[in-house]
Specification:
The structure is a single chain. The chain has 12 helices and 10 strands. By secondary structure, the protein is of the alpha/beta class. The strands form 2 sheets. It has a 6-stranded mixed beta sheet with strand order 6-7-5-8-9-10, with helices on both faces. Helix 11 links the parallel strand 9 and strand 10. Helix 1 runs parallel beside helix 4, helix 4 packs antiparallel against helix 5 and helix 5 packs antiparallel against helix 6. The longest helix is centred in the middle third of the chain and has 36 residues. The protein starts with 11 loop residues before the first strand and ends in a 14-residue tail after the last helix.
């Protein structure tokens, strides 16, 4: 069987492809392509060209139209003639087995979609046995319906019903079908083994959670690359891996934090993303149990991102899918040091855009209604961290008193020194 878990990433050049549809305008498509380019960079590839096409919906056979596919193929051939080989073409949506097969036959280069790219990053980032098992299971789930294209060299040589004047299929059922079924059986057996391993790991983690004592649990959630790991390092004085790349953290990290006389547990979880593969959500359910069992969620948001409101919606939808929509939440608007805006000219009468809104004005919008439910900080610059600690103390102490009414805090005071 093919080995899935990769430990090294090779630098390759990539072409990105996306659609502009009725539900996804040009601005949103360009933002998705920016994110796809960041995903490619995280995986070790460099995006050198982008192609977009306006269609009502992806074509069932080739995702994009034949003319656009010819344009992409021509670009790849021209680059090869100029000795600038294109290593892969990455599509912004998940491709079916039929689409993969047809596009690969036409372009004759490696074809990836958003899902397989994310899976590749997860495989590269996985460090512990738990993360590797979860990633491998997700990869097999992705691969199973696409097995057919791996065995095209063993396809049957004939077709027809076997009756009439046509060329029958009797006697022409070659080893392709047998090999495919054998491979399916091997993968299904492997998946069953991986599921059993995850069930065992889940039981171990449940036992660990039971022995954590009478402490309130707080979980950091948010879009990928918003600064969750930097924040847990700051609050818990720990050394969780943090990097300006997507999915820097795969494994759940739990640290004990003490603010004043109040101890609680703070966990860092895997970041969410738009168009997140269903297989990944299913495979990482044991890791996301920390979110489900948390008493309070810290939803970290990159306020400097131009599309942060949509990222909030993505996280909220993912939390709803996990059954965590009703949990108490504090929204932490991070990276205020990176927030930029452009003041409109006095004689400019056009309506103000998102780029013309200052941070102070933004705080007076719908965010003002959140009151004690949000705070603005910079984890990197350590701006307003004391305010975050005060808010955390108030909210966690309220939960602690309700949850453990006969359990005093473990400390009278806590000396930072």
């Amino acid at each position: 069987m093919k080995e899935f878990i990769r430990t090294e990433a090779e630098t390759e050049t990539a072409v990105l492809v996306a659609l502009i549809t009725r539900t996804q305008d040009e601005r949103k498509t360009n933002e998705y392509l920016d994110e796809l380019a960041f995903l490619a960079e995280t995986a070790g590839a460099r995006a050198v060209k982008r192609f977009t096409q306006r269609l009502d919906q992806p074509l069932a056979a080739t995702y994009v139209g034949k003319g656009k596919l010819d344009e992409i193929r021509q670009y790849i051939e021209e680059e090869e003639e100029a000795e600038r080989e294109v290593g892969m073409v990455i599509f912004d949506d998940e491709l079916s087995a039929k689409q993969l097969r047809n596009i690969e036959r036409e372009l004759k280069v490696k074809i990836l979609d958003r899902t397989s790219l994310i899976l590749d990053i997860f495989a590269m980032r996985a460090q512990t046995a738990n993360a590797k098992t979860q990633v491998e299971l997700a990869q097999y789930r992705y691969m199973l319906p696409r097995l057919q294209r791996l065995w095209t060299h063993l396809e049957r040589q004939g077709g027809g019903s076997g009756s009439g004047g046509g060329k029958g299929s009797v006697g022409l059922r070659g080893p392709g079908e047998t090999q495919l079924e054998m491979d399916r059986r091997i993968i299904l057996n492997r998946m069953a083994l991986l599921k059993q391993r995850l069930a065992d790991i889940d039981r171990q983690k449940s036992t660990q959670r039971k022995h954590r004592g009478r402490l309130v649990r707080v979980a950091l959630v948010g879009y990928t690359n918003v600064g969750k790991s930097t924040l847990i390092n700051l609050l818990a004085k720990s050394d969780v891996f943090a990097e300006n790349k997507l999915f820097a953290t795969l494994d759940t990290t739990v640290r004990k934090v003490i603010i004043g006389n109040l101890p609680f547990l703070l966990s860092d979880t895997v970041g969410f993303i738009r168009k997140i593969p269903t297989d990944l959500v299913d495979s990482f359910k044991s890791t996301l149990d920390e979110v489900r069992e948390a008493d309070l969620l810290l939803h970290v948001v990159d306020i400097a991102h131009p599309d942060f409101e949509e990222q909030i919606e993505v996280v909220n939808q993912t939390l709803a899918d996990l059954g965590c929509a009703d949990k108490p939440v504090i929204i932490v608007f991070n990276k205020i040091d990176a927030y930029t805006w452009t003041e409109k000219e006095a004689d400019d009468l056009t309506p103000p855009t998102r780029e013309n809104v200052s941070l102070a004005e933004l705080e007076r919008t719908w965010m003002a209604k959140l009151s004690d439910g949000c705070i603005f900080i910079s984890a990197r610059r350590q701006q307003n961290i004391d305010g975050l600690k005060d808010l955390l103390y108030r909210r966690v102490s309220q939960i602690h008193v309700q949850k453990y009414p006969y359990n005093d805090f473990l400390y009278d005071t806590y000396d930072e020194a």
